[in-house]
Amino acid sequence: MCRKAFFLIFLDNEGYHMESYLWKIKDRLTELIFWGMAIAVPIILLTFVLYPVLRVSLSSIYDGGQFSLKFYEQLFLTEKVKLIWNTAYLSFLSTFFATLLGLILALGVVRSSWPGKKIFNFAAILHIISPPFVSAIVYIMLFGRRGFITNTLLGLDVNFIGWQAVFFLQTIGNASIAYLIIANVLKRLDRTMEKSALDLGASKARVFFTITLPLLLPGITAAALLVFTNILADFGTPILVGGGFRVLASEAYLQVISLFNMGFAAALCFILLVPCLSIIFLEKLILGNRLFTSSVLSDEGSLDKELRFHPVVSAALYLVCLLFSLYTFTHLALIIIGTFTNIWGYDFTFSLRHMNSVWAQGFSSVKNSLKFAVQVAIFGPFLGMCAAYYLKRSRSIVSKGFEFLSILPYAVPGPVMGIAYVMSFHHPPLMLTGTAFIIVAICMIRELPISFNAGKAVLEQVGKNLEQASMDLGANRWDTFTRVVLPLMAPAYRVGMIHAFIHGMITIGAIIFLITPRNKVLTFEIFVAINRGNLGEGAAFAFILIVMTVAGLFLLNLPWQLPVLWKSIRERWLRSHGISPEKHYQEI
Amino acid sequence: MKIKMDLLSKSSKGAKLVICFMVFVLMFSMFAGCGGTDTGTDNGTDVGDTNGEQPKEYDTLQIYAAYGGLDNIMAAFTEATGIEAEYISMSSGEVLSRMRAEQGRALGDVWFGGGVDSFMVAAEDGLLEAYISPEAQYIDDKFKDPDGYWTGVSIVLVTLVVNKDLAESKGIAIPQTWEELIDSKYKGEILMPNPGISGTAYTFITSILQMLGEEKGWEFLDKLDENAPYYAERGSEPPQKAGLGEVMIGVSPDGIGVKREGYPVEVIYPSDGTAWWHSPVAIIEGTNNLEAAQKFVDWTLTAEGQAVLAKESPRPSTRANVELPDDVPDLDSLNLVDYDFDEAAVKRDAIVDKWSRRYAN
Fold this sequence. Notes:
The complex is a heterodimer. Chain A folds into two domains: 1-59 and 363-588, MetI-like fold (Orthogonal Bundle), CATH 1.10.3720; 81-248 and 288-296 and 305-351, Orthogonal Bundle (MetI-like fold). In chain A, strand 1 (62-63) and strand 2 (66-67) form a beta hairpin. Chain A has a two-stranded antiparallel sheet. Chain A has a two-stranded antiparallel ribbon with strand order 3-4. By secondary structure, chain A is mainly α. Chain A contains 25 helices and four strands. By secondary structure, chain B is α/β, with parallel strands linked by helices. Chain B has two domains: 61-155 and 277-332, 3-Layer(aba) Sandwich (D-Maltodextrin-Binding Protein, domain 2), CATH 3.40.190; 156-276 and 337-359, Periplasmic binding protein-like II (D-Maltodextrin-Binding Protein, domain 2).
């Protein structure tokens, strides 16, 4: 076809025709890109999502090649059944309080007039990028029997190890995620309704409970569901501070690492999948499409006076925000202290020995972490966008199925996915274990739901109208695609990219079974250092990880930040030369 | 003209397929391109740089390790032999799980360090490659497998890590024997791992059962259970918590590590019987880097290699007359339990099961 096109373009000397051919070629090309997606997206989804999940589910009902329910008997008919209750009550409790705390933080930041909002926001983000495992050690140093707060300040001799500790860490850790989601919805909330209610004489409390809260409900639900799956998947915290308190995820991890009971672990994984999968349906049921339609009208300007809370409420909210930020910054400070002092938590003289020992190990894990995270950040959202675009365009029952597959990874706990990948990709035909590819692939797949949803949200908001309009105005498919669809997708791509980068940097559960000597990453080094008792070294790795993540996020944001920065510098320059920027632009 | 145009726009099905395929390949190669690049390149360049004097070049060794001070050990090995080595730290259980998952296509070459019981299981399952190193003749027979599946490189001692500050402030004497541990003054102060997870804990309780006999042994464990606040989920948790003062006594392998890290602890080798096991090295079945793996095994057993190991990871050596650091006790000065490894391996499931039913959290 290419040769034909060449032939036609160059033999035809009439410009009009040439243009029309180009037009046609681009049109074809768009269609072909679409068809390329139509083949690649389903294949990737089937191989990297459906196949592993089916494989792990099936292996729980086969024992040595024979159908058997032995593993489920082991779970339900022995004292192991306690695991289910532990998981259930811990997850509900942590989810409830994490979401509540997230809501309080969001209200405190968005709806109060106190100073320091930026600091709270920063604290929440800092919490999201804080590496795994280290928080548990920090917790012990603060609230343990010899902890700084419990022992040194309050003079208590108590032991806060057990499910309460797990609950505390999970609540704090997930509150920041809940906060980011809820604050985002709250900021873009249509305020006219609240204002009219106030004008009509309703009390502030009444407005809040009958208008603000219901409007926020979709955001709160989305946050709660995300937090819930996060907590179900969390195996590290119960192992580190649970004091023997086990949940399904930690039991599955221990079954694999200490007993190699893959079948039983698979059964546990399958039980974990049940609530996670029902969440996907629950989300559809509760949310429908409300989350994205209620936030159309946005006004991020200053907050109107009448919408402010009563001073007492405000102060209470502020206090919670303050405590939360205080905890986060103490957490960070303790990591830095651990990195640069002689013995973490005991001897506080300045020392570089941990840094030196990290230096001595070379930078292979730092390099690996960065390499994987950047690859995940670039290709992950690409896959998500492709999936969103393709599935949006093709409406059939099959594509509904693929849509389900695209959000399925979000419901599969990390270690479960890791086990599934080991089971699926070690033997022919797909011998991927031991490669760096499989690590990037699993991170990409686990990030798929986020970028898929972001892409889908954008496409849904725009609807087909804009594309239709562009076509009606005479643009061809190619131009519509490159000039309308792609720019629209850019912000969603950015969201996906940032998520994917953070995930690529701090993930451990999913990849812990896939790491090889060649592909060690920073989180794994933290895990090993803490497991070996080299707490200082763990802190040093964590510190490097935090610095790298912050730097990486900064760099990734540059393409979006630079134009803004450039504009502000330019305006300042213009102002300093006595030209008003508005006038300048008008002249141009 | 019009006809030609139509030809182009409704391009034939074949051409359509070709382009579809191209886009598809492009997408896939982007997807795949992220990982594929680095696996091949490392091997050649890494080795090439370092070993000018080595007649033969080996691929970088991939080592699954459960050992301390690995960076320095690997560096010393590379210096001595010119063979590059990369390692990953894992507990014995993890290594065993991995090797089983990877059976038929081994990703590791050498398994270095860990509990001998796991090595025994692995040898039985056909996961190890037999190799009798020429250096193994200098190792006592009780520290190596008669068939050569594994060879012990060092002795792991089960110690009590005791927080001195806490003992002082509470006015409780530091225990010198494990028999003292059931005294009620240590209530809530003794942390040990779950034997289902930790080889250390399993060796500890089985040593007691073997020394006291089943009946008295379980009675002892009943009393010990009253003093334990809970059972840890990681072998490294007890010494860590003892170091930080969360508990007074942690049952731990290689307690010297915590002391060297600088925490205020004393390491006790119970005088009425110190539990121990040997930490072996073995070659993983199906390795494609056999010769280099053999060289690694040889090196760990040489006098120089043993000295490096003892220096980096504070444990007594299996080879006699190796110079040990000052804080590592001489084997002759200890009262080692006369431990029956075969019996312990056979009874493992039964003992862990009984233990779990009695004391699980």
